[in-house]
What we know:
22% of the residues are buried. It is rod-shaped and about 145 Å long. It has a domain at 84-220. The strands form 2 sheets. Strands 4-3-5-6-7 form a 5-stranded mixed β-sheet, sandwiched between helices. Strands 1-2 form a two-stranded antiparallel sheet. The protein is built from 5 helices and 7 strands, in the order H-E-E-H-E-H-E-H-E-E-E-H. It has helices at 3-29, 67-72, 98-115, 130-138, 201-220, and strands at 51-52, 61-62, 84-89, 120-123, 143-152, 162-169, 176-181.
Amino acid sequence: xxxxxxxxxxxxxxxxxxxxxxxxxxxxxxxxxxxxxxxxxxxxxxxxxxxxxxxxxxxxxxxxxxxxxxxxxxxxxxxxxxxxxxxxxxxxxxxxxxxxxxxxxxxxxxxxxxxxxxxxxxxxxxxxxxxxxxxxxxxxxxxxxxxxxxxxxxxxxxxxxxxxxxxxxxxxxxxxxxxxxxxxxxxxxxxxxxxxxxxxxxxxxxxxxxxxxxxxxxxxxxxxxxx
Length: 227
């Protein structure tokens, strides 16, 4: 074969190779037609769009806020109000037994515990006075102090000749914010009924009056039953 024929064939092959490469490049540069989006099949749960993986293959995270997670982080939505109540009783009149002061304190504590189970209660005992109650309130940041006083009314009192009075002092300032008397009405729950004729009804009426004082004190402390 002549040299010129060989050169012609070689040139023809080179031209064919260049043409083929150009065609492949042109095909790769064309935009691909997007596939039409088909509606999701009925009856199949679809993934929540709010949940997505990060770009580094991390775990899925949600944009919604989990209240329980907030509580685990130490940031609850609502913080319980911390309040305390200290109960004191003064020395009663000379002709009144200290026994009634004990009944009054226990009745008040019992009713306050029933109304507000989360309330912290303290019994400071008897033989206290107003100065003691005011001082205890001033020295506390969250404790209210209630002082009970039993006075003899010479047969005209609401508790068979006795009257149960109370004074409430607020924390920090020791300021008197409420005072009054307990009315001996039978409570709808948590109390005891009157004993039969011949029994000591004065004890029961004192308990009722103390429970009425508890309801008044809880209201002045801006607490609601069941708090």
